[in-house]
Amino acid sequence: MVQLNLGCGKDYRDGWVNVDFNREVRTDVYAHFSHGLPFKDNTVDAVLMDHVLEHVRQDDYFAFLEELCRVCKPSARIRIYVPHYTGQTALKHPAHYMYFGVGSFDPFSEDEFFNGERYCNARFRVVDEQLHFFAHKLNFFAFRNKIPINWLFNFNQPWRLIVERFQFLGFDEIYFELEVVK
User: Fold this and answer.
1) What is the pTM of this model?
2) CA-based, 20 to 30 A from 146: which of 111, 130, 132, 157?
3) In the prediction, which pLDDT does 145 show?
4) What is the rounded average pLDDT of the residues 62-83?
């Protein structure tokens, strides 16, 4: 089973192929995402991107998603953690180019309402989507991760949309689990 930890940074995982562009961190493969992914077609079973996708430039975003689909096997799972657009770090970080909210991956679904608006050939089925009031990894105040609050916001997508719209405190992050459709 081939599992990619894309943009691994300091989170080196045994049993995974750890990929990053930063030569100052330990990786298995050094690669810059705007230059494509150095893997053969249909070879990857699972992908983890933990606070990585927001760093992909808008001009490279759709090409990167196509590359991701290219290297993944049909039905491969992609787990993505990104800052929610209302979160404290989403807009402040100078290297955040993309912003995410409920439904951010819906346009890549075959049965999406706007299925005529295709920007690339990447296709995903959203398996899971969760608003996280607190980020899943906190370097400080780690006790906040143990507060059972996220279930309040994640009954279903219509509820997430309502909560997202009227939640005035903001969410630290949003999680997506995607299945590659080929």
Assistant:
1) 0.91
2) 157
3) 62
4) 97
What the block records as the tokens of 54 is: 């927001």
The pair of three-digit structure tokens given for residue 52, joined into one six-digit string: 């990585």
Domain count across the chain? 1
Backbone angles phi, psi at 16, to 5 degrees: -115, 160
- At 105, is the pLDDT very low, low, confident or very high (cuts 50, 70, 90)? very high
Q: Which helix (H) or strand (E) holds 118?
A: none
Q: In three state form, how does the secondary structure of 43-110 look?
A: CEEEEEEECCHHHCCHHHHHHHHHHHHHHEEEEEEEEEEEEECCCCCCCCCCCCCCCECCCCCHHHCC
Token pair recorded at residue 92: 């402040």
Q: 137-144 contacts: CB < 8 A, separation 24 or more?
A: 137/50
Residue 139 contacts residue 89 (beta carbons within 8 Å): no
What's the whole-number mean pLDDT along residues 28-57? Answer: 96
Which CATH number covers residue 9? Answer: 3.40.50.150
Over range 61-83, report the average pLDDT.
97
> Where in the sequence is the domain holding 30, given as residue range(s)?
3-180
Give residues with Cβ within 8 angstroms of 174, minimum separation 6. Answer: 81, 82, 83, 84, 100, 101, 102, 104, 129, 130, 131, 132
